[in-house]
Structures are given as structure tokens and as C-alpha cells.
């Protein structure tokens, strides 16, 4: 029976960072990384660029074989975990092989959430979460003229842009009244919507798909206002859900994701979780949420790794901060923190100019969120100002006028 | 041995915000500057954003495209234009504002150190940017043979042990070493139980005759044709500026071909922290105590390296372990000069035990002593004269340095003003010697707050020293 002191299930950002953290404290402990993917590690975030052809599928790997040799970690691709026995400390794979662990990291990420739309399961549709998905989409879009995209989140918009640039007629159906719901505010959304419209992409906002039917090798999607949107291909991009099915019956506590504490420990002894599969502390609300972004996955992976390796000196995690960097038709939209917040207790400053948009949200004279369109900023510095709850004091006006310059100054002073 | 890397250091107090670094970077990189100087908290203060080439780079870890990598050979965080998908996620990983979107073109830009010769550093006219060679030094000298036994019995954090080991690594086996009484033999250079603590011949002269004995050894080696041997001393300040002074002075006057390294910890630390001629004004020592009457030493230190300049020695230099690059440069020149004449290297060495400095703050004390001009870094040859190897312009106040040193904890405002005036006077004198135009500093226009030997008639008689033979 194969066994490892550290068994990491999942091979993307959280797992890789945990590997690195463990090796900083424990150079020799046996370690293995299992992944259901057949490739070397890659990031789901890069897949829209594989779909567009900008990135070659073999050029997006995050670590090569030599890395795993050097770090003394067994890399086992094509190994889907199927069940977990926390008492016997066994992970059982799809092919029946069992791995014994001393300490386990659950970093199995998330998978597309398929909405319960009547007819959807009986037609062919695409998702975009794996390298194979991206390659398939690229092949398929070369053969299609019209595409329908369900969902105007990051994946849906990226894909819609790529499809439109490839010459397809594209319709995007989104339940909410704006694009990138949850990430950005309505005014930022308007700028993005305008760009999509000017590129001939139909954004059907505030619309729900009520029925999907097959149509001459393509699909027809009926919306709640009775319209039928036809396409030669269909992409479902209505969000993701944490991959927790394999943990059923394991006793690991699960809500929307695997519930973790401020050291990424799950409810089961010697089992940690990190990344898109984990439901950990949210900085702003103090509640446990699935954040599903790379920066949080990396932070959680590092904390989990250090804790797994027995680091007694870790400070409790302050929680994850939403970070979103998005490009549409080459234009940047960047947000950090509670960028769309409004209401009591928030001071919102919106700077609308023809060529750029900036929205800064303060609470108690401290930055809590910022979003810009066409005006990229130091997202890492803004994140630090938010996390450290830096009182802007008398610098508030200067900060509002030039957040980049004042932010750099504040951090430079802090680091010295 | 692991590899270390050179970095660009920013000395904020020296930056005047001229922007030459940004212009140079823009010109070389044909785009926006990778280094950013921004206004600081007060008028005339500036701050900087620049890639630190982190050892634990978060930008690399959040990149979804594998476009950023830590280069194991150069230490630089490399960016691949091909792999980068312009997603800007890396900017969320950097807390230094050091990787950002170029306003033109929109691709991320970051410092690549210009391959080891950064244009910003060359363009900086104020000395605020420095290309630190500490990484190269570690790589170069870390491989050299350590000439001392592993277990020297120095105090925790001892700067003198650092100096001994570094100096002897560079000098190598082809040497004869004298270590007169002091911390250096005290911690084990002369060895125990009949075996030496070094891998080179070492002897233990009297405190008074080190330079004389070395002169004899050199003459003998010259006589038998061994002109390749470095004949040298690692001596303390007591054995150099006080008890051994006449021997040092005589050897320098005669032009004896020896390398004399003075490790100046400002007192007789090995025997119980007594004051020496190199102990600065105001210092607490066991013989210049602090109480109701006395407030530390009442005289200024003598400036031994300047005395050696007056001897027109073949080479004279001051050095500090906070600036290892130039310490090594000077060591190279000092060794070379020791084959031609008297070569004198004065290395300032804070003593964690005797100065009441935390063992982990010793190098910081070295750095602040230099940044405040409390000690100055320069070198002299009879041919080229005296030159600063580190500009004394724009120093931090001496009080900032003094506040970090326990032996100065008791100093009052008058005493601090005296020390500042003394520092300014020394720098002004050195500037004149260096041929730099310098007017007398304002602090000297007024009389020092207290003369170095207080007027006994004006106040109740003070004993200058509590110790009497």
C-alpha cells in the first residue's frame, strides 16, 4: 500500500503552495501529490487563454517533473480520489488503490456548477475548468458560427470575448442585472457591458434560461421572457462548486465547501483543506465563505502546509480578501476588497472620467475596497492597506487623488 | 553552500527626489520606469517602490500562467513575455508596488536588475541607490577556507569574530599572525592546550610590542627570500592606540612592510570593559562609570587612523562590517600595500557585551554609526591622498545612533550636542583633507556644550576617572 507522511490531493495553487511550505520546515518527510488531471500542474485561471490560443496547452504547466524530483514529492497524475476514511487514514482512488497518510491536505478545487435547467442534461454542452475542456472548446469553436454562453462571470465573459474574436455570433445569458456579479459595482459593469456590445456580443442581463433543447446539432435556449436563443455550441459558465463529493461519509464537516478553521484544519484530525474546495474565514464579514480565487488559495495552501509540518509559531489567519483582475478586449478591470459595497458605514467615492473609472470604498477613514476600470493599480498594496486597516488620517484626500502614489509611500515607510 | 544574490538598496535619507533613476530606467527599458520614487511623509522626504526579488515571491505563486519564476542563478524574478497572459494577478501578490501594468501597452513590468549593472544605481547622483554586492561576497568568500577553529569563545553576536574570520579567509594560509592581548586571543586565536586556534602560525606578543615583533618577522622573511608572506596583526584598540602605540608609530615611521588590522571596539573589553584612548566621549565603561557625579567618559577619543595618515603610511583605511563590499575592497588594497610599506586597516567593531547592544543589533549599530558619521569610511595613500569611500553627506543625527547603544543611554542633551559637534568637526576636517570644500559647521561656531575636560574650578571638583593606580 502506498503511503506518505504528507498526502496532498489536488495539484493546483493551494496544493503547490502547501508543498512548498511543508518543505521549508520538513526537508525529508515523505510526500505525494495526487491529482485527477492527467497533466502536470496547471491553473484553471489560465484556461481561457488556452481556449483563445494565446497560451499553448503544453506551456501553461506550473511545475515540471524535475521540480517534483527535487522536492522529493511523488507526483501521481490521473488519480481521482473517491473516498476518505479518516479513522484508518486512507484515501481510496477510483481504481481501488488506497493511499495511507499521516497528514492529509484536501485541495481538490472546484468544478462547474450545472444549473437545473430543464433539457440541459440532454444536450451537448461545454464547460471550462480543465485543460481538456479548453482544448475541446478551441476545437469546437472553429467549427461553429453561433455560441450561447450561460453566465456572465469571469469564465463566461472571457469565453464570450474569445468566441466573438474568433468570429462567432455570441449571446450571453445572465440572471443578474450586471456582469461579474459579486465582483464589481453597477457602474463598472456598464463600461464592460458597453465594450461587449460594441464588439457585437449580445448580453442578456436579468434573464433566466428556462429551457434548453437540441436543435440541428446545436441548441436552442429559451429565456424567461420567451425568447429562443440559438447556437451551434453552448458553454455553461454559471459558477463552480467545491469538489467535496468524495468526502461523503468521511465525517469531514462540509457546508458549501470543506469547513476549515484559521489554520485550515478541518473537523477531522490530521486533515487540512485549502483553495477552492475550502470554506474558510472571509476577512470582511468574519464568516466562513468559499472565496475561489488564486490569492486566497495560495494563502490557505501556505498556512495549511506550515501547520501540517508542525509550525507552532503561525499567527491565526485574518481571512481572505476578494481580489479580481480581469481584462476585456485588452482593458483592465481590477478590484480588491468590498469594492461594490454601499450603505451605512461606507464612504463611497466614485470618480467617473471618460477614459477611466475608479470607485474607492472607505469605512472609518480606512480603505475597505477599490475597483477601477482602465486604471490598473497596485492590487497587492491596496490589499495590505485593507488587511492592516491602515488609518489614512490626514492623507485621505491625497489617497483619493492618487491611490497608487500614496499607497506606495505608505508601504515603503512600513517596510523600512 | 547556498547561493546569495546582490540587490539594489535604497537609503531614503539620501534621496532628494530628483528622479534621475526613473529617467534612466525608462530610457534603458523603453517604457515606464520599473523603479518608482514617490513623495514621503514630510517635505523633502521620499519613498521607493522597486522589486525586492523576494526569496519567497508571492507574485510567482499567484501567477496562473507560469510566467514568473525565481531564477536560481541570478536571484531575479524572471518574467516571460511569451507565457504571460496579462491577467495582472501578479500585482495582487506584491505588497511593494513593484510589479505593475505599464500605462503604455498594459503589460506588466518589473525590475530585472539590468543583468547586474542597474541603470538606476548608475544614474543616482545622491547615493540613495546602491548596488549591494553582499551576495557576491558571500558566494566568493563563503567558499574560502576558514582559518580559525569552529568554536571560538566570543560573546554572542560578537563583531570581532566576524572580522577575524572574514579577514583571515581573504588573507589565507600564507601568513603569520600576531594577536596581542585582547578579545581576539581571549576568544581562542592562540588556542588551548598547546594547539593554536588558527590554521596559520599565530603568536601572542605583549600588548606593547606587536608592531615591533612583526617588523622583525618581516625582515627575516625578506632576508630568506620569502616575500610572499603576509605578516600581520589582528589587534584591539587598546593595544594599538594606547599601550602599543609607540610600536605602531615606530613601525609606520620606518615603513615596515606589515599589515596592521585594528579591531576597534572602543575599550578594553576583554578585561572588563575599561576605557581606552579610543573610547568616545560620554561612554559608560567600568572605569568611566555613570552616577551622581560622573556621566561616562569626559574626553573625546583619539582618531587613530588620522594619526596613521599623519605618518604617511603606505595605506590607511577605515571599514565597517555593515559595508562588507568595501571592507573587502580595502582588505585587498591593504594586503597589497603591506608588501610595500606599513598598511593600516581600522575596522570599527561594536561590542554587544561592553556597549550594551543586543546581539542581533550589532550590524545595525555598525550601519547607524556610519550613517550618522559617528564613524566615517575613507582610505588614504600618500600618492592619492585621502578620499571618502562613502559620502558623509546627509547623515542621520548622531542621537539616532546613540539611542540604540546602551553605553550612551544616560547621555543628556548637552552631552549629545557635544558628540554631534565633535562628529561634525571630524567630518569637516576630513573633508578638508579630502580636498572637498567645506566650511566649518555651524555647531562649531558655538562652544561645545561641555568641554571634553570639564573646568574643575567652575563646578565641584570632578574626578575624571574613578580608577587610580
Question: How is this structure best described in words?
Answer:
- Chain B: GO terms for molecular function: oxidoreductase activity; thiamine pyrophosphate binding.
- Chain B: It comes from Magnetospirillum moscoviense.
- Chain B: Residues 444-469 are annotated as: Disordered.
- Chain B: Residues 444-454 have a biased composition (Low complexity).
- Chain B: Residues 42-73, 75-104, 105-134 form the 4Fe-4S ferredoxin-type domain.
- The complex is a heterodimer of chains A (416) and B (469).
- Chain A is of the alpha/beta class and 416 residues long.
- Chain A has 3 domains: 3-45 and 53-111 and 241-308, FAD/NAD(P)-binding domain (3-Layer(bba) Sandwich), CATH 3.50.50.60; 120-238, FAD/NAD(P)-binding domain; 330-415, 2-Layer Sandwich (Enolase-like, domain 1), CATH 3.30.390.30.
- Chain A is 25% helix and 29% strand.
- Chain A has 10 helices and 24 strands.
- In chain A, strands 1, 2, 3, 4, 5, 6 and 17 form a 7-stranded mixed beta sheet that branches. Chain A has a 5-stranded antiparallel beta sheet with strand order 20-21-24-23-22, sandwiched between helices.
- The radius of gyration of chain A is 22 Å and the shape is globular.
- The model of chain A has no long low-confidence stretch (mean pLDDT 96).
- Chain B folds into 2 domains: 7-137, Alpha-Beta Plaits, CATH 3.30.70; 153-445, Thiamin diphosphate (ThDP)-binding fold, Pyr/PP domains (Rossmann fold).
- In chain B, 30% of the residues lie in helices and 14% in strands.
- Chain B is built from 16 helices and 16 strands.
- The termini of chain B are far apart.
- In chain B, helix 8 (210-223) packs parallel to helix 10 (245-254).
- With 469 residues, chain B is an alpha/beta fold.
- Chain B has helices at residues 20-29, 58-62, 89-93, 119-123, 134-142, 159-171, 183-186, 210-223, 238-242, 245-254, 304-310, 324-337, 362-371, 398-402, 413-433, 442-445, and strands at 7-10, 36-39, 46-49, 68-70, 77-79, 100-101, 108-109, 129-132, 175-178, 202-203, 230-236, 259-264, 315-320, 343-348, 378-381, 385-388.
- In chain B, the strands form 5 sheets. Chain B has an 8-stranded mixed beta sheet, with helices on both faces. Chain B has a two-stranded antiparallel ribbon with strand order 1-8. A two-stranded antiparallel sheet of chain B has the order 2-3.
- Chain B is globular and about 70 Å long.
Amino acid at each position: 500500500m502506498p503511503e506518505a507522511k504528507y498526502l496532498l490531493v489536488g495539484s493546483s495553487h493551494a496544493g503547490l503552495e502547501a508543498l512548498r511550505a511543508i518543505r521549508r520546515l520538513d526537508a525529508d518527510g515523505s510526500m505525494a501529490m495526487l491529482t485527477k488531471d492527467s497533466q502536470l500542474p496547471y491553473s484553471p485561471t489560465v484556461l481561457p487563454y488556452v481556449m483563445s490560443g494565446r497560451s499553448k496547452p503544453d506551456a501553461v504547466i506550473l511545475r515540471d517533473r524535475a521540480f517534483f524530483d527535487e522536492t522529493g514529492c511523488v507526483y501521481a497524475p490521473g488519480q481521482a480520489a473517491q473516498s476518505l476514511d479518516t479513522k484508518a487514514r486512507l484515501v481510496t482512488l477510483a481504481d481501488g488503490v488506497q493511499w495511507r497518510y499521516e497528514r492529509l491536505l484536501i485541495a481538490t478545487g472546484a468544478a462547474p456548477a450545472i444549473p437545473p435547467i430543464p433539457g440541459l442534461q440532454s444536450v451537448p454542452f461545454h464547460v471550462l475548468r480543465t485543460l481538456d475542456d479548453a482544448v475541446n472548446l478551441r476545437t469546437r469553436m472553429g467549427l461553429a458560427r453561433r455560441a450561447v454562453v450561460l453566465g456572465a462571470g469571469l469564465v463566461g465573459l472571457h469565453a464570450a470575448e474569445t468566441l466573438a474574436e474568433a468570429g462567432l455570433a455570441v449571446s450571453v445569458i445572465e440572471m443578474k442585472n450586471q456582469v461579474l456579479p459579486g465582483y464589481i459595482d453597477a457602474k463598472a459593469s456598464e463600461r464592460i457591458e458597453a465594450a461587449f456590445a460594441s464588439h457585437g456580443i449580445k448580453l442578456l442581463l436579468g434573464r433566466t434560461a428556462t429551457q434548453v433543447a437540441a436543435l440541428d446539432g446545436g441548441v436552442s435556449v429559451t429565456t424567461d421572457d420567451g425568447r429562443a436563443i440559438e447556437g451551434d455550441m453552448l458553454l455553461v459558465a454559471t459558477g463552480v462548486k467545491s469538489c467535496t463529493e468524495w468526502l461523503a461519509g468521511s465525517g469531514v464537516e462540509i457546508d458549501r465547501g470543506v469547513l476549515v478553521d484559521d489554520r485550515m484544519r478541518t473537523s477531522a484530525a490530521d486533515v487540512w483543506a485549502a483553495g477552492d474546495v475550502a470554506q474558510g474565514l472571509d476577512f470582511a464579514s468574519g464568516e466562513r465563505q468559499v472565496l475561489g480565487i488564486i490569492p486566497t488559495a495560495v494563502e490557505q495552501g501556505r498556512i495549511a502546509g506550515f501547520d501540517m509540518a508542525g509550525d507552532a509559531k503561525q499567527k491565526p489567519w485574518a481571512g481572505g480578501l476578494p481580489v479580481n483582475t480581469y481584462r476585456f478586449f485588452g482593458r483592465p478591470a481590477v478590484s480588491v476588497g468590498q469594492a461594490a459595497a454601499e450603505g451605512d458605514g461606507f464612504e463611497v467615492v466614485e470618480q467617473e472620467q471618460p477614459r477611466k473609472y475608479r470607485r474607492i470604498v472607505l469605512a472609518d477613514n480606512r480603505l475597505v475596497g477599490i475597483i477601477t476600470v482602465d486604471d490598473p493599480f497596485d492590487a497587492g498594496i491596496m490589499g495590505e492597506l485593507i488587511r492592516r486597516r491602515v488609518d489614512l488620517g490626514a492623507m485621505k484626500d491625497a489617497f483619493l487623488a492618487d491611490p497608487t502614489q500614496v499607497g506606495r509611500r505608505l508601504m515603503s515607510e512600513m517596510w523600512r | 553552500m547556498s547561493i546569495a544574490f546582490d540587490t539594489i538598496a535604497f537609503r531614503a535619507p539620501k534621496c532628494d527626489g530628483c528622479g534621475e533613476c526613473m529617467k534612466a530606467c525608462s530610457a534603458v527599458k523603453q517604457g515606464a520606469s520599473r523603479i518608482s520614487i514617490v513623495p514621503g511623509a514630510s517635505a523633502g522626504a521620499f519613498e521607493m517602490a522597486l522589486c525586492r526579488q523576494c526569496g519567497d515571491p508571492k507574485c510567482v505563486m499567484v501567477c496562473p500562467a507560469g510566467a514568473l519564476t525565481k531564477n536560481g542563478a541570478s536571484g531575479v524574478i524572471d518574467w516571460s513575455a511569451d507565457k504571460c497572459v496579462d491577467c495582472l494577478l501578479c500585482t495582487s501578490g506584491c505588497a511593494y508596488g513593484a510589479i505593475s501594468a505599464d500605462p503604455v501597452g498594459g503589460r506588466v513590468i518589473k525590475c530585472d536588475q539590468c543583468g547586474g549593472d542597474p541603470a538606476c544605481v548608475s544614474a543616482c547622483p545622491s547615493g540613495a541607490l546602491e548596488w549591494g554586492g553582499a551576495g557576491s561576497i558571500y558566494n566568493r568568500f563563503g567558499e574560502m577556507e576558514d582559518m580559525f577553529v569552529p568554536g571560538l569563545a566570543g560573546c554572542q553576536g560578537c563583531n570581532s569574530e566576524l572580522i577575524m574570520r572574514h579577514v583571515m579567509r581573504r588573507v589565507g594560509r600564507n601568513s603569520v599572525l600576531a594577536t596581542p592581548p585582547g578579545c581576539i586571543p581571549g576568544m581562542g586565536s592562540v588556542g588551548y592546550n598547546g594547539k593554536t586556534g588558527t590554521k596559520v602560525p599565530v603568536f601572542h606578543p605583549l600588548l606593547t610590542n606587536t608592531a615591533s615583533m612583526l617588523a622583525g618577522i618581516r625582515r627575516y622573511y625578506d632576508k630568506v627570500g620569502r616575500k610572499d608572506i603576509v605578516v600581520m596583526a589582528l589587534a584591539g584598540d587598546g593595544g594599538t592606540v594606547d599601550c602599543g602605540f609607540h610600536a605602531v608609530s615606530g613601525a609606520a615611521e620606518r615603513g615596515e612592510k606589515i599589515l596592521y588590522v585594528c579591531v576597534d571596539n572602543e575599550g578594553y573589553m576583554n578585561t572588563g570593559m575599561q576605557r581606552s584612548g579610543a573610547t568616545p566621549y560620554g561612554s559608560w565603561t567600568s572605569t568611566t562609570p555613570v552616577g551622581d557625579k560622573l556621566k561616562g567618559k569626559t574626553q573625546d577619543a583619539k582618531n587613530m587612523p588620522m594619526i596613521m595618515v599623519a605618518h604617511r603610511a603606505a595605506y590607511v583605511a577605515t571599514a565597517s562590517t555593515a559595508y562588507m563590499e568595501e571592507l573587502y575592497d580595502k582588505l585587498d588594497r591593504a594586503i597589497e600595500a603591506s608588501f610595500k610599506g606599513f598598511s593600516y586597516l581600522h575596522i570599527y567593531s561594536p561590542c554587544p557585551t561592553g556597549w550594551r547592544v543586543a546581539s542581533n543589533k550589532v550590524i545595525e549599530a555598525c550601519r547607524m554609526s556610519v550613517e550618522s558619521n559617528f564613524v566615517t569610511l575613507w582610505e588614504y595613500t600618500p600618492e592619492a591622498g585621502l578620499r571618502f569611500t562613502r559620502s558623509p553627506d546627509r547623515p542621520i543625527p548622531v542621537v539616532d545612533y546613540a539611542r540604540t547603544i546602551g553605553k550612551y543611554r544616560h547621555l543628556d542633551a548637552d552631552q549629545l550636542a557635544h558628540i554631534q559637534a565633535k562628529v561634525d568637526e571630524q567630518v569637516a576636517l576630513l573633508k578638508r583633507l579630502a580636498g572637498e570644500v567645506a566650511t566649518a559647521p555651524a555647531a562649531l561656531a558655538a562652544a561645545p556644550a561641555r568641554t571634553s575636560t570639564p573646568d574643575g574650578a567652575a563646578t565641584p571638583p570632578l574626578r575624571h576617572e574613578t580608577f587610580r593606580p
